[in-house]
């Protein structure tokens, strides 16, 4: 590998240090770097601004930041079909495989083809209103239906493949991929799922009955959430960002997407080793 996409958190306090490291790699290792036009104002002269005819040239995308930066770089990966490698500049960096201190070694491993590719599922989310699809998008981590600012619970009906599952009053629901099972869903009491599985986790947010618990569905299922609270506007959040305002009787339809995201794995560390290190799994 010699051609890399760069996606960076522009708010990182030592961004110049990152660019200096990349400049050295550009000069000493004859690497080419590309950034998206939306980040062109941060790009030093040695980094090219990616044009459409160069999409197929990008071999790997390096994301510099935390998990939020990694999630925002998904569109870069979908444009170029290049795998993602996270360089953690944040606190947890659960999606990151490397760090700034390990950057040169990581790129050396990539050049020597010392890595594996993992394929992770994406969710496709549609919002249906009055029998028309009015919004569609993708999510790598999760789709969250939330009651919004109003201090009241909302009524949600859940079905799978047009078969009724449950109806409950709650603050909302999280639909998470296995990749997202260690994010908001985990904080809300959802299960941890191996990231290479193909499943969708439904985790309720503060349901008003004790019998509504997290559920795991096959990724081949079509899951529907119907908003049943009149005169109330809820919020649909995708991968941590507000994406659509929801109204009474709207349906949020969740499927696995036809495309997957490629993750680069550089080490032989297992998913469970990462859980023990970053989330203190099993520690007292």
Commentary on this structure:
- The longest helix is centred in the first third of the chain and has 14 residues, at about 15-30.
- The model has no long low-confidence stretch (mean pLDDT about 95).
- The protein has helices at about 15-30, 65-70, 75-80, 105-110, 185, 270-280, and strands at about 5-10, 30-35, 50, 60-65, 85-90, 100, 115-130, 130-140, 140-145, 155-160, 165-170, 170-175, 200-205, 215-220, 225, 235-240, 240-245, 250-265.
- It folds into two domains: about 5-115 and about 265-280, Probable inorganic polyphosphate/atp-NAD kinase, domain 1 (Rossmann fold, 3-Layer(aba) Sandwich); about 120-260, Sandwich (Tumour Suppressor Smad4).
- About 15% of the residues lie in helices and about 40% in strands.
């Amino acid at each position: 590998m010699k051609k890399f996409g760069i996606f960076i958190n522009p708010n990182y306090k030592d961004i110049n240090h990152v660019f200096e490291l990349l400049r050295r790699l550009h000069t000493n290792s004859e690497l080419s770097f590309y950034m998206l036009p939306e980040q062109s104002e941060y790009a030093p002269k040695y980094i090219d601004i990616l044009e459409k005819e160069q999409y197929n040239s990008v071999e790997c995308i390096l994301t510099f930041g935390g998990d939020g930066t990694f999630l925002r770089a998904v569109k870069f990966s979908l444009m170029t079909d290049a795998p993602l490698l996270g360089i953690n500049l944040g606190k947890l960096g659960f999606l990151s495989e490397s760090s700034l201190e390990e950057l040169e070694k990581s790129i050396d491993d990539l050049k020597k083809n010392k890595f594996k590719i993992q394929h992770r599922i994406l969710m496709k989310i549609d919002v249906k209103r009055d029998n028309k699809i009015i919004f569609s998008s993708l999510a790598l981590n999760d789709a969250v239906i939330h009651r919004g600012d109003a201090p009241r619970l909302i009524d949600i009906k859940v079905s799978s493949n047009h078969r009724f599952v449950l109806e409950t009053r709650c603050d909302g629901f999280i639909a998470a991929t296995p990749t997202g099972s260690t994010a908001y869903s985990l904080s809300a009491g959802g299960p941890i799922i191996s990231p290479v599985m193909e499943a969708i986790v439904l985790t309720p947010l503060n349901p008003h009955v004790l019998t509504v618990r997290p559920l795991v569905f096959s990724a081949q299922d079509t899951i529907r959430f119907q908003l049943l609270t009149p005169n109330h506007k809820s919020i649909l959040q995708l991968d941590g960002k507000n994406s659509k305002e929801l109204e009474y009787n709207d349906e949020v339809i969740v499927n696995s997407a036809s495309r997957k995201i490629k993750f680069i794995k550089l080490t032989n560390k297992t998913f469970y080793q990462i859980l023990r290190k970053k989330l203190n799994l099993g520690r007292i």
